[in-house]
Amino acid sequence: MTSASVTATAATVPASARIADRVKIKQSSVRTRMLDIASKLTDVIALGRGDPDLDTPAHIVEAGREALSKGATHYTHPLGMPQLREAIAKSIAADGGGAYTADEIVVTAGAQESMFVAMLALVNPGDEVIIPAPGYNSYHQAVELADGRIVTVPTYEKDGFALTAEGVAKVLTPNSRILCLINPSNPTGMVIPPSEIEKLCDLAIKHDLIVISDEIYAKLTYDNARVQRVAALPGMRERTITIDGFSKAYSMTGWRVGYFAAPKAFTTPMAEIHHGLAICAPAVSQHAALAALTGPQDCVEQARRLYDERRKVMCAALDAMGLSYARPNGAFYVYANVSPTGLTASDFCIRLLEEAKVMMFPGSLFGDHCDDYVRISLLQPLPKVQEAITRMEKVVKALVAARRG
Ligand SMILES: Cc1ncc(COP(=O)(O)O)c(C=O)c1O
Questions:
Q1: pTM: predicted TM-score of the whole model, two decimal places
Q2: 312 contacts: CB under 8 Å, gap ≥ 6
Q3: Which one of 131, 181, 186 would you pick to mutate in the ligand 1 pocket, going by the greatest count of ligand atoms within 8 A of its CB?
Q4: 50 lines ligand 1 (CB under 6 A)
Q5: Whose CA is nearest to atom 16 of ligand 1?
Q6: Distance of CA 46 to the CA centre of its chain
């Protein structure tokens, strides 16, 4: 919701209006303030969003167009078109995620819907859901909506922001029910080392946890990092829900198509919720997703290379500015420590926007335990990234100099 629509809602809703307790309005956050400021500026370089600047590859768009012209304007099977689910099963197996049948896969309106479906189907009031901090903020909202308890596990720059089994072990209680792994991570861009994933899975088995493994960035890795697919590890298939989608690797955010894969004991109740929420994912988008999986894959490699180039440029610039970070080896974000500027990350983001017209978000929006980090997304063409760096350098230099006196 934009700040403008928040204001409009506040003005038109009568004083007697009631909203449910489960709605936690967080619109007064720094994000709203930043969007307000940005709406009055021109020439803002947005390094805040998680939406690839690249267009969906032409052959995928064409498949959508063709499907529409052939009448793909109806509901599909609620679990998703069988041929798409077959293709997803094949692609999971090819990526080392293990063997699934088509009826163990449910196509949803983005990975986002999968996340909410999972929480609504699996969490009872008071169940504890373990989420890395920082971590993709929608997991918090999904747990809240299901009346679950969010339990965060802080991750640290010194460990490359990887979630560790040691950290998770510290927060376990008899009410622990689900462990969420977001690998590679949004917002830190870190890939959890495969050896640590094995330890986390051992812990999940020992404490009978369900694992939700969000692998939506798994095709976007750098420096030879390898994403260990959780469901493929011994003893994990029966307790794992893998969430994935097309938005990031195939630049398909606007099509709203993703999926989850899990044993039928999970997919059957989850599919009920999915049907209630969405009936099915958009038919046209399912055809496009099928083309994404079955067509040429060089578009993914091209995108990955572009993000890698931007990542290297941004990391070198942060080095030059004296701002530390853990070198990201996945996704398309850099998570940088701006504390040398003397400002909190929230204040830094506002200052950067007002003075340099560069937008990035503080880690506090991703449930971070401190307000020292900013998430820089690399989703602008390289010249824009470079221009943003030039603008940011000026602000950082001035702040650091003022601090030194
Ligand atoms: C970790 C993670 N999971 C899921 C999503 C949602 O993706 P989709 O567009 O498929 O709903 C995002 C979007 O930013 C994300 O970062």
A1: 0.94
A2: none
A3: 186
A4: yes
A5: 186
A6: 17
257 and 376 both lie in a single domain: no
Measure the CA angle with vertex 286, ends 276 and 93; round to 5°.
100
272 lies in some domain: yes
pLDDT at position 3: 41
Q: Are residues 50 and 103 in the same domain?
A: no
E strand spans, 96-188: 105-108, 128-133, 149-154, 176-182
Q: Which of 224, 218, 227, 132 is nearest to 180 (CA)?
A: 132
- Measured by CA distance, the residue closest to atom 13 of ligand 1 is 50
φ/ψ region of 202 (left if φ > 0, alpha if ψ in -120 to 50, else beta) reads alpha
Q: What is the extent of the structural domain holding 237?
A: 74-294
- DSSP assignment of 12-61, as one string? HS-TT----TT----TTSHHHHHHHHHHT-SS-EE----S-SSPPPHHHH
Average per-residue pLDDT for the chain: 94
Instruction: Check whether residue 368 and residue 232 sit in a common domain.
Output: no
Tokens of 16: 């007697």
| 276 and 362 together in one domain | no
Query: Exposure of 38 by Cβ count < 10 A (0-12 exposed, 13-18 middle, 19+ buried)?
Result: middle
- Give residue 6's pLDDT: 44
CA 341 to chain centre: 28
Ligand 1 lined by 148 (C-beta under 6 Å): no
What is the count of structural domains for the chain? 2
Among 262, 294, 326, where does a domain finish?
A: 294
pLDDT digits (tens, 9 = 90+) for 172-227: 999 999 999 999 999 999 999 999 999 999 999 999 999 999 999 999 999 999 99
d(C-alpha 183, C-alpha 104), whole Å = 21
Q: What is the pLDDT of residues 221-242, one digit of tens each?
A: 999 999 999 999 999 999 999 9
Which helix (H) or strand (E) is 373 found in, with range? strand 373-377
Cβ–ligand 1 contact at 132 (below 6 Å): no
* Structure-block tokens of residue 305: 């290379």
The minimum-distance atom of ligand 1 relative to the CA of 109 is 11
